[in-house]
């Protein structure tokens, strides 16, 4: 037996003419017009700008479906214009009209907040499952593709408030319209200046540093330059987004909503960053003398005195380990000289540390992230001697391990084939074996001395790396925290649809009420999608097993590249700052 499903707006409780869409076995009611006379639906809607944007998604214009009447007892009865529908058993599916003015809408697939990729057409995300849709919404005995398209029904429900506003003169605030205006000559000149300034600043941030390698840029070695580049990217992104948001296009409400949310999330983050940075910067400026002295005291204690004490301890047969006296003395004097030179340099600049703290406090007016970036760069400068000592110790230890590996192959009768990248069997002469034995003796007796000095600076390097990792994690949190999204999730979750589900319901005035359409908000994993990506990169780079492997093989340990923990905020199609200001 054929059943008719009627999507009925929850707040519609008066008599009048039914306006909506008719499918094979589904009726979507957009509004109830109280007028008794015929309504020029087509004429009223065609003159409504927002309906013209939604028309294509709804497939066709709503029509007069019949009349609704409520009895004295309050029960609802419908008389359809199509006489064939009047004898069919009717089941109601209630829904709340979403307000496109407030960017509320139903969606079968979760809202894609990531504007840096093209969102593919996702499969329907219906919490009730496909079986419920087959049993409740579709005609039994028919395949799903033969019945109405639930996506089309969803778009029609989204457009119902616009239809009601056009036909009933709704009390909702009118949807603002936008008319493109030709840019003035003043704006054209300003745009040229901004474009030139942005190009120059981006060029400085991406200046290649050939002293490292051809791919290293200035922003890769300085956290401050990297943060400055992030702010340049955000500000170059704003003009195009302001123009896009001001149009309030509803043709693709999901894309527009994602752009809107990302824009205001960036604005909120920048404002909060500046507010917090100003407060922290004020505290730094007011206490710069004390903080400068404190910085010198602890820097000199941890990076000079403790290092000198550790080097002295290692040169004196630590815990009974008998090291090579001559090699230990040479390494001790070398590292001690490097540490003492840095100690003299630190003492020379100690009087300027309060000024550095004061300048960092002044930078707080641009945000707390700038203070953190400057602190990260200052940490790199204050531990430069540890970095150089670690570089020397790592190089020596790595060479010792390579030599030991080559001698191991020698004694096994193997030789590394460079051309084939493999180990081949090889017959060594007696002289080669004797020379290998002598070299092995040297390596065996010298390696413990090199390893203990390497272990000291490897531990110091790990501590420095972890401090950089903490700073970079805080920077990533402050640059990408979904503050605006969380506010919407709490305030009005219908602006962040993650699908729909159907709840059983009852209403006294509708005897055959079956289900209520509810919008499912997107999961928190989709809100924090940036952090899931960034956390994956951080955890893989700083994984304990990976770090232990680098220490065991004397491989150089570097902090994670800063571009790896920087999530792009540019939308699809953005290529250069110059194009963003066009």
TrEMBL record:
The chain crosses the membrane at residues 330-349, 356-375, 387-411, 432-456, 462-486. This is Gpi1-domain-containing protein. InterPro entries: PigQ/GPI1. GO terms for cellular component: endoplasmic reticulum; membrane. Keywords: Membrane, Transmembrane, Transmembrane helix. One of its GO terms (biological process) is GPI anchor biosynthetic process. Pfam families: Gpi1.
